[in-house]
Automatic annotation (TrEMBL):
Binding-site residues, GTP: 16-21, 127, 136-137, 200
EC number: 2.7.4.10
Source species of the chain: Leptobrachium leishanense (Leishan spiny toad)
Residues covered by region (LID): 126-163
Gene3D superfamilies registered for this protein in UniProt: P-loop containing nucleotide triphosphate hydrolases
Record keyword Zinc present: no
The keyword GTP-binding is assigned to this record: yes
GO biological process, one term: ITP metabolic process
InterPro entries, per the entry: Adenyl_kin_sub (IPR006259), Adenylat/UMP-CMP_kin (IPR000850), Adenylat_kinase_CS (IPR033690), Adenylate_kinase_lid-dom (IPR007862), ADK_active_lid_dom_sf (IPR036193), AK3/Ak4_mitochondrial (IPR028586), P-loop_NTPase (IPR027417)
Name of protein: GTP:AMP phosphotransferase AK3, mitochondrial
Amino acid sequence: MAARGLFRAVIMGPPGSGKGTISERIVKMFALQHLSSGDLLRHNIHGKTEIGLVAKSYIDQGQLVPDDVITKLILKELNTMRSNNWLLDGFPRTVPQAIALDEAHQINSVIDLNVPFQTIKDRLTARWIHPGSGRVYNTEFNPPKVSGIDDITGEPLIQREDDKPETVTKRLKAYEALTRPVLEYYRNKSVLETFSGTETNKIWPHVHAFLSTKLPAVNKE
Ligand SMILES: Nc1nc2c(ncn2[C@@H]2O[C@H](COP(=O)(O)OP(=O)(O)O)[C@@H](O)[C@H]2O)c(=O)[nH]1
Ligand SMILES: Nc1ncnc2c1ncn2[C@@H]1O[C@H](COP(=O)(O)OP(=O)(O)O)[C@@H](O)[C@H]1O
């Protein structure tokens, strides 16, 4: 249960708040292993697994995947990461998920990205991803070197089906109803650290400073 000496963190925030972007920086700087529930689900959809087929119908509608499906998937994956420091991105998103996670692992810190909804809506329509790695780009904020092409592999980028404006609105509603209570859950456990702002480059130094008090950096900025 409590893994002594290991650092286990969760990054939360509404869709488009910068979880993927900030996770990439954290992983580079602090060498945590990153597990993104959205990336894992998209791999399953791409591979046409049973879970992928179930998940796709919910994701395309802007709804959360059922708790039992995602919880089983994530806990199984975390079992392969027992000796690592890790950063969980996109899970838990409901209170039952948070309770199930607590029963299996002790969480040291929850990083909450508090970004206004209007800022988010504008960002998501400009988001492009490399489906193989989960690398994320934005035509305005961090464009790829060559339009439509991943910087590292040279493979094509795609736009996510669920980044259409009407689906984004549904995802933000699901966040309000189901995910916001998770913040309260972690606040009561005194592990919640909230970072507010509208720009990742302004939020990042604060996240970096916070994590520096918990972990040694392995890279310079
Ligand atoms: N304009 C702008 N775009 C950003 C900023 N930070 C991240 N993005 C982009 O916004 C989109 C959502 O960010 P992402 O990290 O995928 O958020 P997530 O959905 O919380 O994982 C991506 O296209 C990012 O490249 C920012 O400060 N300004
Ligand atoms: N913990 C989870 N519980 C339920 N559904 C999830 C979870 N994580 C991801 N999903 C599903 O996958 C979709 C995409 O997730 P993700 O890539 O994390 O989105 P974003 O980064 O934009 O917040 C979500 O809208 C939801 O349908």
